[in-house]
């Protein structure tokens, strides 16, 4: 049982100097999670390059020690051939510089698509062009099952304990390790519940920092807030970051121990202070320096600052009352329940027809699916939940692989 009588979160000062600039305090002693992940990628890439070099050296040694053919001219010709082969292979040694996460994602995406596209499975041609050019496209047109496969493959290639090992390596005793792990679980719970309440998004690896000396989590870059992440071109499905490496660093019980207890207590305290929170948010309606227009979605009807503030306050009040917005996974299917919802068309071989007819069928079905996928059908509101049920829902949604597979690749959901 977690007996800590209080919870805290790291803060830092922000001093506005104008409408478009200001000063932000430097957070000492904190390391971005991306830096830890990148260090592992560099070590792994160097290790694979060294393995490849050892393999080529052994191959060259075996070639030099092998007995060449005794045919006329064979001694010179075969030995020269082997030397040229070794030279060519040595030029293919893996680079010691790993690819960036986005490039890594698209490499895996192309690989998975190539493995799964067969003669009787057709995908909208524009989707393949988006993948080839690494463009940010409408993800609703991408096959969800294949996107899930991409995420699963990336997860299988990435250790789950990168962060947990870093905390362990920075701890001199088992007692200090346990203290840092508890602190990490508590501060992660605090930031997760606050982030879920205020709609904080863009929680990629560079925006989540950790102090390895204390285990405290620090979040930076609050630009995407108040649900703005749900309105991005690649909408954010989860409320906070609770991926594999985060879970494994929470301690032996992962989400079922101190983390869940802390989430419930923090949410209970936020609900208890609902009137104070809403009162403070009322200032949004009267702050002339505040521009909420950037939080508006791609709607033709533009709202005033007062209307936007009222909408934000109402959304937060609903969360404090126990109502949550859930991504409607059933909305990925079209009205006929066919596989067109995923952007795929499966046809029997005997009914393929010519290429133009197939392409027209694909575009027609994709158009029907896009027409039925309205923004209002993407999110549904839950029933009123208790504190425990609301925390349980948020955790389940944040750890659901089908949700994580729809996140923007720069979010690196596999880490």
TrEMBL record:
One of its GO terms (cellular component) is nucleus. GO terms for molecular function: protein serine/threonine kinase activity. One of its GO terms (biological process) is nuclear-transcribed mRNA catabolic process, nonsense-mediated decay. Transmembrane segments: none annotated. SUPFAM superfamilies: Protein kinase-like (PK-like). InterPro entries: DDR_Repair_Kinase, FATC_dom, Kinase-like_dom_sf, PI3/4_kinase_cat_dom, PI3/4_kinase_cat_sf. Residues 383-415 form the FATC domain. Residues 1-334 form the PI3K/PI4K catalytic domain. Coiled coil: none annotated. Gene3D superfamilies: Phosphatidylinositol 3-/4-kinase, catalytic domain. This is Non-specific serine/threonine protein kinase. It comes from Meloidogyne graminicola.
């Amino acid at each position: 049982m977690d007996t800590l009588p209080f919870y805290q979160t790291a803060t830092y000062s922000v001093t506005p100097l104008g409408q478009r600039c200001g000063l932000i305090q430097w957070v000492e002693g904190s390391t971005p999670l991306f830096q830890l992940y990148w260090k592992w990628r560099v070590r792994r890439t160097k290790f694979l390059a060294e393995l490849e070099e050892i393999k080529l050296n052994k191959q060259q040694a075996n070639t030099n020690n092998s007995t060449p053919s005794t045919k006329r001219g064979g001694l010179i010709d075969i030995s020269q051939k082997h030397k040229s082969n070794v030279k060519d292979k040595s030029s293919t040694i893996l680079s010691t510089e790993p690819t960036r996460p986005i490039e890594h994602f698209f490499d895996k995406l192309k690989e998975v698509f190539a493995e799964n596209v067969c003669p009787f499975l057709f995908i909208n041609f524009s989707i393949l062009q988006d993948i080839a050019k690494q463009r940010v496209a409408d993800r609703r047109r991408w096959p969800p099952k294949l996107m899930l496969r991409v995420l699963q493959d990336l997860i299988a290639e990435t250790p789950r304990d990168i962060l947990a090992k870093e905390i362990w390596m920075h701890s001199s005793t088992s007692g200090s390790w346990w203290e840092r792990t508890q602190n990490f679980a508590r501060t992660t719970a605090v930031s997760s519940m606050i982030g879920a309440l205020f709609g904080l998004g863009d929680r990629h690896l560079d925006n989540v920092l950790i102090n390895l000396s204390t285990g405290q989590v620090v979040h930076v870059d609050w630009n995407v807030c108040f649900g703005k992440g749900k309105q991005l071109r690649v909408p954010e499905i989860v409320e906070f970051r609770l991926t594999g490496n985060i879970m494994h660093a929470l301690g032996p019980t992962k989400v079922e121990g101190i983390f869940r207890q802390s989430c419930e207590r923090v949410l209970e305290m936020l609900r208890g202070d609902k009137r104070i929170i809403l009162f403070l948010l009322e200032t949004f309606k009267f702050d002339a320096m505040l521009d909420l227009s950037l939080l508006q979605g791609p709607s033709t009807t533009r709202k005033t600052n007062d209307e936007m503030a009222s909408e934000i306050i109402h959304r937060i009040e609903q969360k404090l009352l126990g109502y949550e917005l859930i991504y409607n996974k059933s909305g990925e299917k079209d009205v006929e329940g066919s596989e067109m919802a995923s952007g795929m068309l499966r046809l029997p071989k005997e009914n393929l027809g010519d290429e133009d007819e197939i392409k027209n069928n694909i575009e027609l079905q994709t158009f029907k699916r896009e027409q039925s996928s309205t923004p209002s059908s993407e999110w549904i509101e839950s029933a009123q939940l208790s504190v425990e049920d609301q925390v349980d829902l948020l955790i389940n949604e944040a750890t659901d692989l089908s949700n994580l597979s729809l996140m923007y690749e720069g979010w690196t959901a596999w880490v």
